[in-house]
Amino acid sequence: MVRRADFLAANRGRRAPMPGFVLLVRERGDGDPAMRYGITVTKKIGGAVIRNRMKRRFRVLARELLPDHGIAGADHVLIGRDGGIERDFALLRDELAKALGKIMTRPVDAPRDPARRKGKPWAGKSPASAR
Q1: Could you tell me if 73 and 31 are in contact, meaning their C-beta atoms sit under 8 angstroms apart?
Q2: Which helix (H) or strand (E) is 15 found in, with range?
Q3: Where is the region Disordered (predicted)?
Q4: Max intra-chain CA distance, the chain
Q5: Which of 92, 101, 99 is nearest to 57 (CA)?
Q6: What pLDDT digit, counting tens, does each position of 21-46 carry?
Q7: What pTM was estimated for this model as a whole?
């Protein structure tokens, strides 16, 4: 994946947070069975050398695990987290396999409960009525 719109669309899909990364998966629904993947590592993680090392590790993991454990016709996005570069590669592999398993067991289009939003004391109400 290279287009920003694809990454933003994946953000509306299912997510599985892990200690070293966050996995986002969104089924495209375009009839194409190809699995696509994207990798994002922000500058908060570190300099260019650190970010590129983390992306290389994610690329190897994606190529190894997605053909067997990924969802056909879906976009998979790995977002690097702080501390992910120090994690053992075998541990990252196990975490990605676990995250893919969690994603597979969740319903595709489960409606989100607006009352479960974090940080909003007026969850479910309009901001004007919360005052």
Answers
A1: yes
A2: strand 14-17
A3: 105-131
A4: 52
A5: 92
A6: 999 999 988 888 899 999 999 999 99
A7: 0.76
What type of residue sits at position 96? Answer: L
The conformational region for residue 99 under phi > 0 = left, psi -120 to 50 = alpha, else beta, is alpha
Residues 20 and 83 sit within 8 Å (Cβ to Cβ): yes
The residues that bridge with 27 in the sheet, in sequence order, are 74
- Cα–Cα distance between 116 and 131 in angstroms, integer? 20
Instruction: List the one residue out of 38, 21, 31 whose CA is nearest residue 75.
Output: 38
Q: Which residues pair with 80 in a beta bridge?
A: 21
Residues 54 and 72: their CA atoms lie apart, in Å, by 25
Given a cut of 70, the residues of the chain with pLDDT beneath it are 106-131
Q: What is the second-level CATH architecture of the domain 4-105? A: 2-Layer Sandwich (3.30)
